Amino acid sequence: MKPAPFEYLRPGTLEEALVALDHDDAKIIAGGQTLVPMMNFRLVAPERLVDINGIAELSRINETEGGIRIGALVRHAQAARDPLLKNAFPVVADAMRHVAHLAVRNRGTIGGSLCHADPSAEWPLLISLLDGGIEIAGGSGTRTCTPGEFFFAPLMTDLADDEVLTGVVLPRLPAGTGMAFDEIAQRAGDFAVVACGATVEMGGDRIVSARLAFGGLSDVPVRMADVEQAMAGATVADIAGAVAGCADGLEPNEDMHAAADYRRSLAPVLARRVLTAAAGRAGGRE
Amino acid sequence: MTKIDITLTVNGEEMTGRAEPRMLASDFLREVLGLTGTHVGCEQGVCGACTIRLNGATARSCLLFAGQLEGADVTTVEGLGSPRKMHRIQEAFRRHHALQCGFCTPGFLMTVAEILETEELRTDGDIRDALSGNLCRCTGYEHIVRAVRELVNERDGVTA
């Protein structure tokens, strides 16, 4: 239950961090809420630990031209309280309530959650739902990934060993877009069995556009393109029909928490609740 | 591995200890600085017994390395009160029998200190939710919730 020895470096800038990562067996530590248990169990034993907590520029949330940028070191609790995010993406605070427990939310970061890429985690789902651009810095410059490009499988992403995920840009949604999030977990703070997020834009009684994303139904967060298409031009009364059997083609994990069938059966239930809630909030109607 | 000097502020006092950077912060506080109020339960971030305040916010000290404490501002349960001069949270726990074996209590006290500052805690359900990161195997939580309810009412000027 104690980690193996490692060399500890605490760079003050992103440039210094990239230099520190130029090593055969280096690992970044941000919030450490997943990495440290894995190190304590000696499931991972990096030779060099690069602590990025001192890089202040990674802790900011700010407005960009088309949206809001969240630095990789932003803590779950910080994101939940942030006024910019509360205003533009209230679904973030709704989802953060489900992330583990208070002390973990105080420490854990958005960047860490995305890099760990647990398919049930809230951030990967949110970034998929909100079409976030994932910013990555490396020795040869910076690049931006879509969620589809970034997430390969649990614990596997497009991030190279010598790169740093620096932040995420969430493109602004049309004013009045309603958003909602919900999940089923065995206990408060547990990983979700299935998690679901939606956005709905209404025009009168019709749904103009909708997005629907799930965690826990596949190796990576999934967007439900078929349901999204069926929702355009539909009414709230059509939601239940449109989401029926929406996860039937997916192959969720089976584990000690839930069978694949159970996960598939939860999907339409959550989708109906979340889409209906999002529609109710659209246009500031709540 | 070589040991390094780690200087930090603990309970308002500047302290320096020598440790390998990989030492868990919980062990550093207990074994190097001699502050054994912070308890070590699971060492995997589940039980909450080792909860401290790090730069104002609660954190599990078993999920921090000693090297990360350089320059930090830490509050441990020793910073709340002492047996002769208990903090009002400790008083409330004593009054309501909110502990039996006491192993989890330091973590609960640190969490309660934070949530009284940051959470509304309107219902007992809110209190249970805010405390859900701390495990207690003795009390069944009932008396802990009662103690916190009293503290919240005190805070909000509610007379029960």
UniProtKB/TrEMBL annotation, chain A:
FAD-binding PCMH-type domain ranges (all copies): 1-175
PROSITE patterns assigned to the protein according to its UniProt record, in alphabetical order: FAD_PCMH (PS51387)
Q: SUPFAM superfamilies from the entry?
A: CO dehydrogenase flavoprotein C-terminal domain-like, FAD-binding/transporter-associated domain-like
Alphabetized, the UniProt keywords read: FAD, Flavoprotein, Oxidoreductase
Any one GO MF annotation of this record = oxidoreductase activity
At the top level, the lineage of the source is Bacteria
The keyword Flavoprotein belongs to this UniProt entry's keyword annotation: yes
Q: Does the keyword Oxidoreductase apply?
A: yes
Q: Which InterPro entries match?
A: CO_DH_flav_C (IPR005107), CO_DH_flav_C_dom_sf (IPR036683), Diverse_Substr_Oxidored (IPR051312), FAD-bd_PCMH (IPR016166), FAD-bd_PCMH-like_sf (IPR036318), FAD-bd_PCMH_sub1 (IPR016167), FAD-bd_PCMH_sub2 (IPR016169), Mopterin_DH_FAD-bd (IPR002346)
Q: Which Pfam families match?
A: CO_deh_flav_C, FAD_binding_5
The protein in question is named Carbon-monoxide dehydrogenase medium subunit
Per the UniProt record, the lineage of the source organism begins with: Bacteria, Pseudomonadati, Pseudomonadota, Alphaproteobacteria, Rhodobacterales
TrEMBL record, chain B:
Name the UniProt key words of this record, in alphabetical order: 2Fe-2S, Iron, Iron-sulfur, Metal-binding, Oxidoreductase
Q: Check the UniProt entry and state the signal peptide residues, or none.
A: none
Determine if Metal-binding is one of this entry's keywords.
yes
- What PROSITE patterns does the record tag this protein with? 2FE2S_FER_1, 2FE2S_FER_2
Pfam families, alphabetized: Fer2, Fer2_2
A GO molecular-function term, please?
A: oxidoreductase activity
InterPro entries the UniProt entry points to: 2Fe-2S-bd, 2Fe-2S-bd_dom_sf, 2Fe-2S_ferredoxin-like_sf, 2Fe-2S_ferredoxin-type, 2Fe2S_fd_BS, Beta-grasp_dom_sf, Diverse_Oxidoreductases
Domain of life of the organism in this record?
Answer: Bacteria
Residue stretches in coiled coil: none
What's the protein called, per UniProt?
Carbon-monoxide dehydrogenase small subunit
The species this protein belongs to is Roseovarius azorensis
Source taxonomy lineage? Answer: Bacteria, Pseudomonadati, Pseudomonadota, Alphaproteobacteria, Rhodobacterales
